[in-house]
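Lecture notes, continued. The same structure-token format from the folding unit now serves as the input rather than the output. Read the line below as a description of shape only.
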């Protein structure tokens, strides 16, 4: 019978979804007893652990739901390799106040300069704030929209996209869009106007976006919405990936026996 309270406590903690209470309550009780901490202090410590663990699980869930191709933080971005990038603006954006204001971010620059890394870093920062984030490439999103339209589930997909506080659309401009695809993508941007934030990365300057969407009218309307409340990151420079690859090759060559 002496085990009954323990069994019931474990059952109740599972039912209440308090896994950290269940895992730590006994060990922490002994620690608090040894330190002379009263029951209020014990419960406070236990509740703090539960809260921290719950926040950690929430962040992990947000990261999984965002479907990032890789988890990258701004801490690992080499700002020195791209001196033209406004580092202070990027770090300020990582505080996520722009998401609360429903503003957008557009990163423009040639291939390999770290636009995706910065977008992923800002997406991770938003997840750490507990905000729902979605990541996709422009071509993958258009393909998904076209498929959903043909299968009569477009409205459901549009609702899912609208549920993200931050939607990251990577590599806009790498693949030209069909007329229908361009119109569907425009609809995504239009629905988010002043309702949710977007991060867009592109290798093309704005004056070449007509080539992506195939229509001056559509491109003008899109840019009008995207740039109304926007932070623009200029990321032109030498290819970060190319320099990294060259540096690695030099290191390997230096390690080869003579």
């Amino acid at each position: 019978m002496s085990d009954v309270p323990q069994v019931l406590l474990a059952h109740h903690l599972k039912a209440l979804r308090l896994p950290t209470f269940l895992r730590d309550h006994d060990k922490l009780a002994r620690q608090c007893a040894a330190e002379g901490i009263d029951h209020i202090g014990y419960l406070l410590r236990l509740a703090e652990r539960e809260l921290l663990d719950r926040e950690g699980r929430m962040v992990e869930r947000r990261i999984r739901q965002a479907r990032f191709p890789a988890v990258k933080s701004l801490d690992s971005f080499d700002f020195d390799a791209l001196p033209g990038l406004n580092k202070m603006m990027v770090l300020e954006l990582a505080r996520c106040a722009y998401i609360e204001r429903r503003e957008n971010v557009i990163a423009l620059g040639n291939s390999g300069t770290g636009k995706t890394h910065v977008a992923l870093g800002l997406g991770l920062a938003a997840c750490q704030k507990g905000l729902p984030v979605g990541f996709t490439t422009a071509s993958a999103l258009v393909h998904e929209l076209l498929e959903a339209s043909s299968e009569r589930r477009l409205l459901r997909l549009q609702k899912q996209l609208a549920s993200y506080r931050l939607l990251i659309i990577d590599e806009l401009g790498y693949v030209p869009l069909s007329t229908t695809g361009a119109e569907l993508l425009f609809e995504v941007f239009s629905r988010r106007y002043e309702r949710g934030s977007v991060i867009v990365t592109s290798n093309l300057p704005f004056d070449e976006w007509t080539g992506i969407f195939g229509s001056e009218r559509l491109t003008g309307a899109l840019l009008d919405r995207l740039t109304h409340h926007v932070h623009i990151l200029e990321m032109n420079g030498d290819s970060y990936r190319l320099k990294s690859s060259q540096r690695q090759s030099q290191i390997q060559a230096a390690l080869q026996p003579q």
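Point for the exam: The beta strands are 104-108, 133-137, 166-172, 197-202, 230-234.
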